[in-house]
Amino acid sequence: MFDHLEIKVLPRGPRWRPQLRFWVNGEDVVEEAVKEGGRGPYAAELLPVDQPSPLRATSEPRRLELGEPDCTGGCCGFLSVVVQRCREIVQWSDWKVPFAPAPPLPEFHFEASQYEAEVARVEADRSWQAHT
Fold this sequence. Notes:
Blueprint: E1 5-10, E2 19-24, E3 27-28, H1 29-34, H2 43-46, E4 62-67, H3 73-76, E5 79-86, E6 89-96, E7 108-111, H4 112-124
Antiparallel strand pairs: 1-2, 2-3, 4-5, 5-6, 6-7
């Protein structure tokens, strides 16, 4: 059974520009790992206008920062994961979690078509830019 990814863009807040949050199987991965007050990556960083999103999975594994605690990643570390596509599966693995030793997050395995459709959907929706 595959995991299910949903990406949401949170609007600008009092302290942060619009940011991304990642729900896997209905759970907010950023909040689970960095607790309340943490933030996801800025939408502008992972949804660039002139190139594909770094969220796009390829056969070449790469580490992506998906969040940081309220005190900033420079203080306690970033939430990051290795993203890689293996045929028809996109895998998120090898998590690095702030506040080590935190409980490890599990590997997630997404059906590539669902994962790609979700990334394409959030890349196409630029409504958050009107509020930056």
